[in-house]
Amino acid sequence: MPPAVRVRIAPSPTGHLHLGTARTALYNYLYARRNKGTFVFRLEDTDEIRSQENYTQDIIDGLKWLGLNWDEGPDIGGPYAPYKQTQKIDHYTEVANKLINRGHAYFSYETPEELAAMKEAQKDSDTAHRYDNSHRNLSKEQVEKYVAEGRIPSIRFKIEEPRVISWHDNIKGEIAIEASVLGGDMVIVKSNGVAIYNFAVVVDDIDMKMTHVIRGEDHIMNTAKQILLYEALNHQVPEFAHAPLIFDLDRAKLSKRKHGEAVHINKYRVDGYMPEAMVNYLAAMSWTLPDGKEFFTLQEACEMFDLYKISKSPAVFDVQKLNWYNAHYIRSLPLDLVTERAKPYLTMLETETYTSSELEQIVASVRDGLTMLSEVMAATEFYFLKKLEINDELKEKALSKDTAKKVLETTLKHLGDLPFGDHAGCKAVVDNLGKDLGLKGKDLYWPLRAALSGKVQGPDLGAIISILGPARVKARLEDILCLCA
Ligand code: GLU
User: Fold this and answer.
1) Is 256 known to be catalytic?
2) CB 223 within 8 A of CB 74
3) In what order do the strands lie in the sheet with 38-43?
4) Which of 145, 209, 256, 258 is catalytic?
5) Contact 342, 366 (CB under 8 A)
6) What is the mean pLDDT of residues 93-115?
């Protein structure tokens, strides 16, 4: 029986959670859930200069926001913390020493200046820069000389050539890479004692018994190097799956440099996107449900996910498409949940002047028109304002006809007939008043809309009246009547 599936997401806390990393996390999560396996979250935080605590927190918050809960980690007496590479720095050195003892790695004493000179000397050659493996077989005397000079060595792993490194990739199919393009013997532990990514990741994936490594295809060359490390460590190579990268509509790779904050999950969290929409869209970018259904939940995706069906072609990020998903979820998720999520965007308003069920009605009345929750404040503000601002344009549009005054006065007179709390009932009363006045459409609705909401478009008029309640409707109608000629 094959071992139980164990997969991981291993971001470096050197930046905010990137959309591509979130999508990789999602695919790993789905694969784990589909196969009743384990999803691990490990922070690759050995880059001591670029790693930052605020990025760590952002990545944690982003994964939690998406609902991608991980199954293991140091026990901190609550939800698991991520594993961190910096917790096991010494272990990497031990493993590197093992590789030296077995003849797979060696101490390399070049100074940064010597390495830079090597690079410079190769700059006109047609092939990519490579280390010339010159410290592979240093004599005892040479080593003693370097040590006497006070040079601190790095540890390099031998990349034997010629050799073709090949594997069956679970997304891309057969892949074969010539060892000669890998840049020569590679540093695995820097002279400051810190293990570099390609080495630490293999040590960790072995220690954590990873069965599958699912990540972006920008790691394909790394995978070739990592396979050599697995072999040298006498360990079985995990299954690999490299997902296509994400591009924009102009086919440019999604990058912080070109797209700024739009590549970070955090931006969408702050702008009031629904995690359900983000999860749905991230999954759907390169994978479709067998029945082609466009809207699906994380749970449904867990049940249906098929790694082998992930598309090989580049994924395209189209914010309009994401907005379309988002609008769908704002419209269709349970109202209490949407209201709860909308509240942080309403803090500037006196929300306590409405009961919680009225607040839900307020959100219900506008949610069909929202693309993101951050728009909820502008859309609902009129419910809360003490006094509406009626500008000249609105006056001209909605209140200039003689009939406007009539509509407002009549409504005021029949205030007692309005069944507040019943949206459709309120609308029916207005329509009946219109009938009596011989008015309908804009002539009937616009004066009321202007008076009650300060604009001529917006939620259903019955809902506006019903939610505002008798006191506010009365005050607003009286206020506006003063403006009517
Ligand atoms: N830290 C690497 C990254 O964020 C991890 C890649 C991997 O999954 O091995 O790209």
Assistant:
1) yes
2) no
3) 6-9, 38-43, 83-84
4) 256
5) no
6) 97
Q: What is the CATH number of domain 385-484?
A: 1.10.10.350
Tokens of 141: 């005397």
Distance CA 341, CA 336 (A): 9
Superfamily of domain 6-77+197-247 in the CATH hierarchy = HUPs (3.40.50.620)
The span from the first CA to the last CA of the chain, in angstroms, equals 85
CATH, range 89-189 = 3.90.800.10
Given the CA of residue 205, which atom of ligand 1 is nearest to it?
9
Q: Is it the case that residue 148 has pLDDT exceeding 70?
A: yes
Our mutation pick for probing the ligand 1 site, out of 47, 201, 205, counting the most ligand atoms within 8 A of Cβ, is 201
Is the N-terminal amide bond of 162 cis, ω within 30° of 0? yes
Residues with CB under 6 A from ligand 1: 10-12, 21, 44, 201, 215, 219
- The pLDDT tens digits for 27-65 are 999 999 999 999 999 999 988 889 999 999 999 999 999
pLDDT of res. 485:
57
pLDDT of residue 78: 72
From CA 314, how far away is CA 245, in angstroms rounded?
A: 6
DSSP state for residue 395 in the 8-state scheme: I
Q: What six digits make up the tokens of 166?
A: 């090949």
Which residues, at least 6 apart from 182, have a Cβ–Cβ distance to it below 8 Å? 159, 221, 224, 225
pTM of the model: 0.93
* 256-336: CATH topology: Glutamyl-tRNA Synthetase; domain 2 (1.10.1160)
